[in-house]
Write a structure and sequence with these properties.
328 residues, alpha+beta, Butyryl-CoA Dehydrogenase, subunit A, domain 3, four-stranded mixed beta sheet, 6 strands, 12% strand, globular
Length: 328
């Protein structure tokens, strides 16, 4: 089976890369960290671009595209550490399926929503005024207030949410399976962002290793540096295959999605962390300073590792699902 992208998806990736490269950069992430500047490109620009709402049906004003289409865009967002996350839009599109009015509000930007998982910090809580949450087996949309944390990675907009029960509305009853599906789709999109960030960290490391001289030779010619970068390259390319498989499963093979989503979550967390740490190490002394952008990728890796479950739980889930399939 061919898991490569088609021409339309390559064109979509190119368009997303052009937009996101102009709209966001690690410098913007640094500004958000140092000065509290707004994350870029921001919700409004993402919605207006149409990229954020690719998976919202056309009838509601969205793109009517697939999870794979959104993953293609998410990879480009990860390269420039863009915020807010496309994960939030992807999950909301699933959770609000069939609700034309609210999907239209999501597509035009008038519904500024975040998805609440348990009692931990909520991704993209910053700026949100409506929150989707699972209560019992029902999906509920409620108002609330987010207390934004001093985050390791400010582009993730993490905050603690206090819900306002007075205006809570059930948007889907007996919908636990839909909630679980939305979480898995979110894991796929999060992994695609991780793929983009890891790929860019690798590129920066390779560029530096080709330019930096030590004892009259480029440091990339030394085996210790070369092998470290090659190890990251292998992991990035393996992750790329997993991302495309998981996104395809979300669109075409729902029975495969639980295993694919767990696998891609685990692989993305470990790959991005290794890519970021290798980037720091390749840059030596300057890599450990605030001056260089390497720490911005490291920050993204440390935060993403624990979003939508951590990598340890994801690997455990992969093992359980794989054993169950063999035993069936």
């Amino acid at each position: 089976m061919n898991f490569d992208l088609d021409d339309e998806q390559r064109d979509l990736a190119a368009a997303a890369r052009d937009f996101l490269t102009d709209a966001a950069s690690p410098a913007d992430s640094r500004a958000a960290l140092d000065d509290g500047a707004p994350v870029r490109p921001g919700r409004t620009a993402l919605v207006e671009s149409g990229f954020a709402t690719i998976t919202v049906p056309e009838a509601a004003g969205g793109g009517g595209g697939s999870v794979l289409d959104l993953a293609v865009v998410a990879e480009q967002a990860g390269r420039v550490l863009a915020g807010p996350s496309l994960v939030t839009f992807a999950r909301a599109a699933v959770l609000l399926a069939g609700d034309h009015e609210r999907l239209a509000a999501l597509a035009d930007g008038s519904l500024v929503v975040a998805v609440v998982d348990g009692s931990g910090p909520v991704i993209d809580a910053a700026g949100a005024d409506r929150f989707l949450v699972l209560r019992g087996d029902d999906i509920v949309l409620a108002g609330g207030r987010a207390t934004v944390r001093d985050a390791i990675d400010p582009t993730r907009g993490l905050g603690d949410v206090t819900l306002a029960d007075a205006d809570a509305e059930v948007v889907a009853a007996d919908a636990r399976l839909r909630w679980e599906h939305a979480e898995r789709v979110g894991r796929v999109v999060l992994a695609a962002e991780g793929l983009g960030a890891a790929s860019r960290a690798l590129e920066i490391g390779v560029e530096y290793a080709q330019q930096r001289l030590a004892f009259g030779r480029a440091i990339g010619s030394y085996q210790a540096v070369k092998h470290a970068l090659v190890d990251v390259y292998v992991q990035v390319e393996q992750l790329r295959s997993l991302v495309w498989w998981a996104a395809w499963a979300a669109d075409q093979a729902p029975d495969e999605l639980p295993l694919a989503a767990a696998a891609v979550k685990a692989a993305s967390a470990t790959t991005l962390e290794q890519a970021a740490e290798t980037l720091v190490q390749v840059h030596g002394g300057i890599g450990f300073t605030w001056e260089h952008d390497a720490h911005l990728f490291w920050r993204r890796a440390k935060v993403d590792r624990f979003l939508l479950g951590d990598d340890v739980d994801a690997y455990d889930e992969v093992a359980r699902l794989a054993v169950a399939q063999v035993s069936a």
